[in-house]
């Protein structure tokens, strides 16, 4: 897999340090290192991407070769140290892997990391295949070490999760980091030093552009005297290769795998051409750079409307655009018969998920408060994680979701304008440690009036169950001090703190009502382990006694559990999906849902 290839290439480069924060599609890079090299490399899941980059920067200043992994939106969190670090430089080597997510399949944005490189004057490597990623990550470390600057490595979803066949090299870099060297103000980013280093960075961009014009990853194929050319990069390059395989029309091809842009190579490509089609996912980086050099050559692509400005590109789409550009017919030859239309399945929380119980407890308790007239309305701010699905029916209890940690801070702003409202902020335990703590401090400091609901399922569930500071376990499986969320909230000055079992609905409802009677910052922690880490299913499940069930559908309508359906006028529970959480039994007004013994 592409992410495995990146991890293996980083090992080949002789890395000493690896850190990151889990985020699809980058997660498997660090997980691979944890699996195959825990004794050779220091590895950590950091509290967030900013912490990951800053710890890696320290390792690089001590002469180490450091790797940092994250997804594209994680780079937003790490952008502050990234911008400044490029100004002061490093000593060893530092590669920041920021995996882009065209589509997007699992992200809030479709942002293009190449533009971050351009913004920060940081070199970017943009591989096209898993095989290329294996080699190119080593080149990224070599460039970082040579120029004493951080480097960005930008794989995209299809590369990260695609597969290739390659030979692994046993030629591993081996060296001992020299350690940190005091050097006056070299490593301190004073304004005057920043100004001088900015001048150096701009000069380096021209030098790197010349170097990258000779780099193997930037390819020019030009036979004869074609009048048309295609420029591409990233995962679009193999799509273009596939599209041109059966096309005999003369056509020049430029593949761009780096920032700074290889201007010299691009000028050679443009020479003699009349028009060029650029094919690249997300932003028109190659298209804009070619337009600056084009002279009389017509540049087509996103800006001309020949290709979509948003979304993921797929082979069929690319081939159709190429055929149209070359004036050739496009036929979907030998297209397989389309499969039957499958029923639409909306995203849903797992059966037995503690978040469903937490949402139900809050929703039912707040509904009672509103009926009594205690509050005029309630607004529920959400956050990034599995619990974003609280927005879907029938739960319908997440009104806003912006980015990691924003639920707590947005709730504060909402309440400042609409003081009569009861403002809730939902956040998961991992996200709380990522960026939620700052929001709590801000709320306490500014005497905000909000209720924070922390959904503690003892893992980073959405990205595969990675540990975090509240679990007491590190990336490599070692024990660490477990940060107690309850005690931390108390120390921070939260007025009311209560921890309850997510599945004890009466206790959870009472905690919500009690928190609502207080003012200031209040917090309720709903505790319930994620079903993905509760692997032992032995014990009891629930079944419906059809003699008692009235067919009221309340369990189905209120909970939306995938194990619950209606059958022959009665509620029915799928024993293969049911996880023994008891939530449906607590909702049933007829007490028709009973415990039964269950064996795997």
Structure description:
This protein has about 600 residues and is α/β, with parallel strands linked by helices. It has four domains: about 1-210, Thiamin diphosphate (ThDP)-binding fold, Pyr/PP domains (Rossmann fold), CATH 3.40.50; about 225-325, Rossmann fold; about 355-525, Rossmann fold (3-Layer(aba) Sandwich); about 540-600, Alpha-Beta Plaits (2-Layer Sandwich), CATH 3.30.70.20. It has 19 helices and 21 strands. It has helices at about 1-10, 25-35, 50-60, 70-90, 115-120, 130-145, 155-160, 190-210, 235-245, 265-270, 285-295, 315-325, 355-370, 405-415, 430-445, 485-490, 505-515, 555-560, 585, and strands at about 15-20, 40-45, 65-70, 95-100, 125, 150-155, 220, 230, 250-255, 260, 275-280, 300, 380, 420-430, 450-455, 495-500, 520-525, 540-545, 565, 570-575, 595-600. Strands 2-1-3-4-6-5-10 form a seven-stranded mixed β-sheet, with helices on both faces. A five-stranded mixed β-sheet has the order 7-9-8-11-12, with helices on both faces. Strands 13-14-15-17-16 form a five-stranded parallel β-sheet, with helices on both faces. Strand 5 (about 125), helix 6 (about 130-145) and strand 6 (about 150-155) form a beta-alpha-beta unit. Helix 1 (about 1-10) crosses helix 2 (about 25-35), helix 1 (about 1-10) runs parallel beside helix 6 and helix 4 (about 70-90) packs across helix 8. The radius of gyration is 27 Å and the shape is globular.
